[in-house]
Request: fold
Amino acid sequence: MGKKIQINKEFVDIMPQDYLDLVDNGTYESPNRGWKDFGTATELIAEHSLCAGCPESIAFRHIMASIPNPEDTVMVGSTGCTSLVFPMIAVHNIHSLFGNQNAIATGLKRALAVRFPDRVKDVIVLAGDGATVDIGLDMTLQSWFRKERFTTICFDNELYANTGGQESGLMQKGFLAKMAPVGKKFEKVRLPEIARESGCDYVAIMTASKPSLVEKVIKQAVLIAREVGPTYIQIYTPCILEIGKQSMEGLQEMRTSEAPGERFKFREFISPEAQSFLDGLAEKKKAEKLAATGATS
Amino acid sequence: MYNVAEVNAEECVAQKGCRLCIMYCPEANCIQMDTTKMVATIVESRCKGCELCVVVCDAAKHNAIKMVAR
Ligand code: SF4
Ligand code: SF4
Reply:
């Protein structure tokens, strides 16, 4: 059992089993946490109300398993399908007004630095494309211009899903949705490129089809945000209902959309400062490994 | 009636390291690894019946999961 997450002894007997499981069998303070904990450790996300087969749930699971420091992380959410999941995650989180998430995260990150000067506190924004690119674009961009040190994750399902399928800035050109019947007339906003030009030190665009890749990207993004500057991850989480797919077809949809030349082909931008930070980390790991093998031989 | 997934322990190759269904099930804590028998096990009360586990298990030709009515 970790030291930071504990149940007050007086309350143990009245706590629900799920809560006890989280404390006893969760992955707080586990330095090598990752998707490999699935199936044996208790996940930091529980029964939520997203649709059967929703790829967003898959992405959420992968992310919750990968964030490096869950016991000292605060997540900021916004309005959308993601806000149905936040009450069911076992990490501190704040629901912001629609679009305000990066402004809230800015204040939060600064306040945490003042309140806990000796502790590492990570802030992670997780919001949909409507919140990130349309309604909250001002706040998103301004936080990057100011080089605020937190990670912004956008769950891109290319439309407004839980209000019935309206057009969003990240929708593809020409796409027809239930509430956008004439088809989108403009290109999908190139937010990854905009992020790079706006000051992000790490940018990735991907799907949630490979848990190992999601894990690697999330860890890099959070660590770079901690030490170097803002980071941005855009993950395709298709809304199977709005694009007319069956509940078991979400994974294939993600795989199809990340093929070479497709809009979610994995791309990554790493600034020189972030790259030298990552190189430093790799060096340190190598040295530690060497020391460990040296000690045993 | 509600459909849930069921693992056939004879067919499951988790022993050899397969974790496909556990990786891709959209529901958290829903497919667990029985570490004594080394087979994937469905927690029925959490299963939403999406069939994604069947798709990934079949694609790898293990055919160890089928949907059953409850
Ligand atoms: S995908 Fe199939 S074979 Fe693999 S662990 Fe799951 S049930 Fe077993
Ligand atoms: S049917 Fe869907 S929810 Fe149920 S165990 Fe399989 S993947 Fe998980």
